[in-house]
Write a structure and sequence with these properties.
This protein has about 450 residues and is mainly α. It has 20 helices and six strands. Helices cover about 60% and strands about 5% of the residues. A hairpin with a 2-residue loop joins β1 and β2. This is Adenylosuccinate lyase.
Amino acid sequence: MSPASSLPVQPLSPLDGRYRPAVADLGDHLSEAGLNRARVHVEIEWLIDQTDRSFAGSEPLTDEQKASLRGVVTSFGQADIDELGALEATTRHDVKAVEYYVRARLEQLGLGAIAELTHFACTSEDINNLSYALTVKAAVENVWLPRFDGVVALFEKLADEYADAPMLSHTHGQPATPTTVGKEFAVYAYRLKRVRSQIVGTEYLGKFSGATGTFSAHVVASADIDWPTVSRSFVEGLGLEWNPLTTQIESHDWQAELYSRVAHANRILHNVATDIWTYISMGYITQIPQAGATGSSTMPHKINPIRFENAEANLEISSALLSSLAETLVTSRMQRDLTDSSAQRNIGVAFGHSLLALDNITRGLGEISVNTAAMLDDLDHNWEVLGEAIQTVIRAEITAGRSSISDPYALLKELTRGHKVGQAELVAFVEGLDIGAEAKARLVELTPATYTGLAADLVTYL
C-alpha cells in the first residue's frame, strides 16, 4: 500500500530534484521561462526592426526607448513569469500570451502607438522557431559545451601524464598486444574532439515568413517591400542563419543534426564510462577514497564506481531522448502539426541528462588513480602476447632470406595458444629460431612492458 499521507508538491524529474545543482544552469535557457524570455526578445526586436524602417508610418525609436524595450528582456524575472502564466491561463495559447505581455509593456513605456506592430504578420512558429534556436544555441555554447570541453581536457591531461605507462590490452576480453594508458586516454580525447567539431559546426536556422512560409500577409500589407530581404536581415541580426524555404514551421533539420551529434558524443562517453568501470574492476585503475563517503551499505571495504555508473544511465536516457527528437522533429504533416510543440519541451531534459553525465565523469576522473604497479604485474604474467612480435619478425627474416622457417604463425600458435608462457620459455624458444643474429637479439630483449610500439608517440596527435 502507498503511504496514507500526501507529500507537499515535489519535482517529478530528478533533474529538478536530486540532481538540480549539476544541471541548474541549463534552466536559464531550456526551461519554459527561458523560452518565454526568448519569445519576448524576438517580439521586441521585431518591433524595433519595423520602426527602424519606419514601417506603416511609424517613427524610429530613440536609443533610450530601444534600451527601455530591451530592458524588458534583461530584467525578465519571476513577476514576469507569473504574469505570463496568468495570461496563458486565459488565452490558452502561449505565444498569444507573450504578445499581450509585450503590448502591456509598450503601454507602460508610453509606446502604445506602435502596439499594433506587435507580432505583425507573424505566425506563432515565426516566434517559436527563432526562440528555440536562440535558447538551444545559448545552452549548447554557454553551458553544455564548456562542461564537455572540461572532460576532453581531462583526457588530454591523462593522456600526456601516462603516455609511457605500459598496459596490457584486451581484445575480445583476452590478453593482447600491449598499449599505454596514455594512448588509450588519447583515443577517447580524439574521438570526443572530432564529434565536438561537428557540434560546433551546427547551423542554427531560423524562418520568419508567415503562416505557410509565403509572406502572403506581408505582401498584402505592403507589396513594395522586399520581404525576403527584411526576413533574412532580421534572422541574421539575431545571430542565426536564415532558412528561405519552409512551410509554416522551420523544418527542424538543424535540430535533428545537432541532437544526433550530441547523442553520438553521449555514446562515446558511454564507452568511456564502461571502459573505466572495467579497468576499475580489473585493478588497473583505483578509486581514491572520499572522506565520509560510503561505498556499500553492508560491505565497508567497497568503493563503488558510482560516478561512471551514474554517467552510463544518464547518457542512455539522454541519447534516447535526443534520438527521439532527431527522428520525430523532421516530420510535420503538410504545412503544420503540433507534435513538435510537445517534443521540443523535452530538449532541456535531454541535455540535462547529458550534462549530469558530464558532471559525474568529471568528478569520477578526479577520484581515480592509475595503478601502474598492477599493470606491470599483469604484463609480466602474459609473456605469450609477444607471440605476435616473434612471428612477425620471422616473416620479415624469411622475406630477407635469413630464415627457412615454413609457417611462423603456426609455429607460434603451437607454442602460445591456450598456454601461459614465461620469459624463460620464450627466450629459449627465440634462441633456437632459424633467424638472423640481430633479429634474435631484439626479440630476446623484448618484454611485454616494452612491446608498446609507437603508443607513447601517438599521444602527440591530439
